[in-house]
Amino acid sequence: MAEAQNSPTLNSVRAGGPPSVGSTTAGQIAVAAESTVATRMSAPPSFDVADFPVPHGREEEWRFTPLERLRGLHDGTAVATGDGLQVTVDAPEGVVVETVGRDDARLGKAGTPVDRVAAQAYSAFEKAGVVTVPKETVLTEPIRIAVHGEGGVAYGHQVIELGAFAEAVVVIDHTGDAVLAANVDYILGDGAKLTVVSVQDWDDKAVHVGQHNALIGRDATFKSFVVTFGGDLVRLHPRVAYAGTGAEAELFGLYFTDAGQHQEHRLLVDHNTPHCKSNVAYKGALQGDDAHAVWIGDVLIEAKAEGTDTYEMNRNLVLTDGARVDSVPNLEIETGEIVGAGHASATGRFDDEQLFYLMARGIPADEARRLVVRGFFAELVQQIGVDDIEERLLVKIDEELEASV
Amino acid sequence: MATLEIRDLHVTVEADNATKEILKGVDLTVKQGETHAIMGPNGSGKSTLAYSLAGHPKYTITGGTVTLDGEDVLEMSVDERARAGLFLAMQYPVEVPGVSVSNFLRTSATAIRGEAPKLRTWVKEVKEAMERLNMDPSFAERNVNEGFSGGEKKRHEILQLELLKPKVAILDETDSGLDVDALRVVSEGVNRVRESGEVGTLLITHYTRILRYIKPDYVHVFSAGRIVESGGAELADKLENEGYEVYTKGGSVSGANSEEEVA
């Protein structure tokens, strides 16, 4: 069982490493107002699953998630099956690809698990992947990490580290069927540029929970696309913190939630450093009975983070009756010395009147639907900049739409 | 020559768990090149006629026929009617989030014309049509009807009319909610299309004001779900002076106000 596996080595990593996102926030916010980002979590961040009580579902961070569909990831009953997951890394020359043990000092540097499943993943994985782009290495081809499940239970950890002034695009592609809890650390050295596309294109039964921690160096740029189509339950927790001034994070997300699916994206941008930027834009389309999307957008501007410029946005397009969206933007500002801060959330419907309007202009029903959904996603898709991924997303969107007719 | 023929059209709508007959036998023939004004009080069924012709699913046809050049319009889906040459400029154009005007117009023109318009000539065509309607070029990049003022929505409808060149255009209270300047611009757009001689126009209005800009060949008075009097342009003058009272006396439109809401 996973709970006893937290090793002394890991504890020393936690103590000796750079300040982690979660614990920094917790330390500062504990005395602040009641409704703050950090105090909404029911336990402080920890690498040890034993530090988190088994959730009962009424906690703020679990209240939207159907616990019974986590297949035991949250209560210690999901035991790794050993052969459940294939991870293949295809990297251009100059990239160092390693599989390391739990005691590797590079693990866990970008952030600390903030909930029970993330801690479970951290406590239970046996081997971790580390992909390193050495300093000043500029890649012209993407690094591709294929994660394919064959029906088992798995825990994982992946580190992607860019040295100073390195530039890379990483595509992480999740397919097949799995019950997976896995965290990803992104560590960007000074002036590095990383674009990450994480595609959750799981089969219908898959369960995937993970925390993505990005630690962005001085003047570095982190651009992330989280694209979720598949799975029975996907719950991702992308988090950003800054290790130096002048850093920038762009967090984009797309999800297409079908009947019966639960897709949850919970973001935190921790402006813990002065003069950094963040821009969050997540868009989702939903269709079918009991399609449920959850978007939590937490942005924290700490007292010391003067000169912060941040904006977050969530848009949802509900295509049919029976779908549900919970969208909760939350902006917390502890200093007035900032460039800008804003958030927006809107959920709209594609309804019979819109369909009628488009059809009254000669556009067939299926094309009208496609027009609306493609148009809705286009501004995000076009920014990915990886042709085959953009094309695949558009095809995928069309397939989703055809399935609905 | 394109001809829209409406014969003894009966239409019902479901409201408050009851079936209500709104149109009670409409007869009308609109030929290419002609302009017919349909005038009537609120709740007389004018908008129901417009939406029924376009095929809105809310309305049930319970009797009668509608043909366009002999083809059975009532058998066609909404998009088939549009491709057959029917155009409805709506009183309340619908917002379509995520779809830019430019993408919408091109998709629509492609569907109506049966092939994608050549990009270079199309861009010019749209630009010129927008200039004629005093529309700023930035309009093309906005989402369809999203955040449009009342006047912008109506200009956008007439822009579509000019680009799609239908055989029969139904203008449902295009004049309502417009100030005089906007009314003039919109009317000029309608007149440009009419002057081609290739469109039959069914101009539905509550007010005579628009008829100073768009001269109808025929005026029909609509009351209680049917045409109760037809005449030339002079009939509009009579309505201007005398109002609709003479047609509504006797309570034949009592309770019919719900029609405007459902339309």
From TrEMBL, chain A:
Residue numbers spanned by region Disordered: 1-25
Compositionally biased spans, kind Polar residues: 1-12
Pfam family, one: SUFBD_core
GO BP annotations listed: iron-sulfur cluster assembly
InterPro entries, per database record: Fe-S_cluster_assembly_SufBD (IPR055346), SUF_FeS_clus_asmbl_SufBD_core (IPR000825), SUF_FeS_clus_asmbl_SufBD_sf (IPR037284), SUF_FeS_clus_asmbl_SufD (IPR011542)
Residue ranges of every copy of the SUF system FeS cluster assembly SufBD core domain listed in the record: 149-376
PANTHER family registered for this protein in UniProt: PROTEIN ABCI7, CHLOROPLASTIC
Family to which the UniProt record says this protein belongs: Belongs to the iron-sulfur cluster assembly SufBD family.
UniProt name for this protein: Fe-S cluster assembly protein SufD
TrEMBL record, chain B:
Alphabetical list of Gene3D superfamilies matching this protein: P-loop containing nucleotide triphosphate hydrolases (3.40.50.300)
Keywords of this entry: ATP-binding, Nucleotide-binding
SUPFAM superfamilies linked to this entry: P-loop containing nucleoside triphosphate hydrolases
SMART domains documented for this protein: AAA
Family the UniProt entry places it in: Belongs to the ABC transporter superfamily. Ycf16 family.
Cross-referenced InterPro entries: AAA+_ATPase, ABC_transporter-like_ATP-bd, FeS-cluster_ATPase_SufC, P-loop_NTPase
Start and end residues of each ABC transporter domain: 4-249
Gene Ontology MF terms in the entry: ATP binding; ATP hydrolysis activity
Name this protein carries in UniProt: Fe-S cluster assembly ATPase SufC
One Pfam family it belongs to: ABC_tran
Species lineage: Bacteria, Bacillati, Actinomycetota, Actinomycetes, Kitasatosporales
Domain of life assignment: Bacteria
